[in-house]
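User: Please write out a complete single-protein record containing the residue sequence and its fold in token form, without commentary.

AI:
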Amino acid sequence: MAKAYASIDIARSAAEVWQLTGGFNALPDWLPYIPSSQLEEGGRVRRIRNLDGEEIVERLMAFDEEARSYSYHILKAPFPQANYLATLRVLDVDGGRAARVEWFGQFDPVGVTEDEIVSLFKGIYDEGLAALASKLG
């Protein structure tokens, strides 16, 4: 199983960062390459579209408001992977004066090398966290 990890420290409180990122339907609020999201099944499934119009369907697997984290599976996506499980979480750092946002996942490559799929998801996570930091100034 392949794994990818990215993190960024943001000079905002973890509570403030979680307010923007913590909703399972909140990706369009901070992630420019996901312009739309629609919840189904009582909020447990989200259908998102990327800028190319490709649909990605994800299922919420765990949500922890207190720990400021959620985990999700990809059910359908244009990525060469299987068994994808990722987590987004926001941690207090620097005595609560900043937040560390971590985005990480594990998955099996399908038709590509492990290095290629890790590079793909690491790029998505890095680009997404940079966009989040930019959004929060």
In short: The first strand starts at residue 2 and ends at 10. The helical segments are 14-21, 27-30, 114-135.
